[in-house]
Design brief:
By secondary structure, the chain is mainly alpha-helical. It is 75% helix and 0% strand.
Length: 325
């Protein structure tokens, strides 16, 4: 009720004669009067608002990603390894996109979401560094607290932000959310892989190959975890009365999957996931590379099956609607 009265009051003020509004000008009403006011409003009169937002977005993207692009230009081999390291994740994200023949997300929305995912890595790096300093070494289980309380929550939250900033208003169904989540995860993985691979410079082909193969597996994980979170973001758009609960569910599931993957690979396979080597945390019970491959395959196949079943149920439901089947 208070909100309705407030909106009614604002509409009344907007329609009142100008001479009656002198006491509230620049408080509840405003119009360009001074030269500074008119100068500030000029870009929004001459240039379409969407174009201004696009320019701002590209400028921010350039500032955050220019160092990555320059490094790739200086070391083309590095760029090649980064590209190879995300191929499996790209194919998976592409498959998710092609799986919805009825309300497919536009390529432009995918591209923007991908870039937003790329940009989120810088923020995640700051958060992870602060959390690492606070938790690693705090207890013998510090690394697992780090994964469950810092790395996974921060990265999954930021990828969800990448989905919602541009894509949420354009979502028409839950599958679209899963697709945007997948491309946000792909963008995040691309820059993250660059950071890992650039650590192998001055490059050794053997080291770069090993790192690229390892990161290829993690990239698929980023796509899958974000696809799950994105699915629930899309479902929240369709079922707005439960929006909060659905978004929270997607976030929690993605965090648990992400943190579990990190914890298992460190505890049983001695695989580091950050700047700190696993041997500085707790001794790992190394089960060997074969066991690691089996774990990754089973883990990813399980998550992939879960997402694909959601997509299949959506396709079946839509096919039963007259005019869509």
């Amino acid at each position: 009720m208070d909100i309705d009265r407030s909106e009614s009051r604002e509409r009344h003020l907007q329609k009142a004669p100008k001479e009656d509004l002198l006491h509230v000008y620049d408080v509840t009403v405003w119009e360009p009067r001074t030269p500074v006011d008119k100068l500030c409003e000029l870009p929004f009169r001459v240039v379409p608002k969407k174009l201004i937002l696009g320019i701002v977005f590209m400028a921010v993207a350039f500032l955050l990603l220019s160092s990555t692009a320059l490094a790739v230009l200086e070391e083309p081999v590095l760029g090649g390894f980064v590209a190879v390291s995300v191929v499996p994740a790209l194919l998976l994200a592409w498959y998710f996109w092609m799986s919805d023949p009825y309300e497919r997300v536009t390529a432009t929305t995918l591209a923007v979401t991908y870039l937003l995912g790329c940009m989120m890595v810088s923020v995640a790096a700051v958060v992870n560094t602060a959390g690492q300093d606070a938790l690693i070494g705090f207890t013998s289980l510090g690394v697992y607290l780090f994964f469950f309380l810092v790395v996974a929550p921060a990265e999954e939250f930021l990828k969800m932000v990448a989905v919602t900033l541009h894509g949420y208003p354009r979502l028409g169904n839950a599958v679209g959310g899963a697709v945007l989540g997948a491309f946000a995860g792909l963008g995040f993985a691309t820059v993250e892989n660059f950071l890992y691979l650039s650590g192998a410079l001055p490059f050794s082909y053997t080291e770069l190959t090993g790192t690229a193969m390892a990161r290829a597996g993690v990239s698929v994980g980023h796509v899958l975890w974000s696809a799950v979170a994105g699915y629930y973001i899309g479902l929240a758009k369709v079922v707005p009365e439960h929006r909060g609960a659905l978004v929270l569910k997607g976030f929690v599931v993605a965090v648990v999957l992400h943190a579990t993957y990190n914890s298992v690979t460190v505890a049983f396979f001695g695989v580091g996931t950050g700047a700190v080597a696993p041997t500085t945390w707790i001794p790992a019970v190394e089960l060997g590379e074969s066991a690691q491959v089996v774990f990754i395959l089973v883990f990813y196949i399980g998550i992939g099956y879960y997402v694909l079943m959601k997509i299949e149920r959506h396709r079946n439901a839509v096919s039963e609607i007259p005019g869509f089947g």
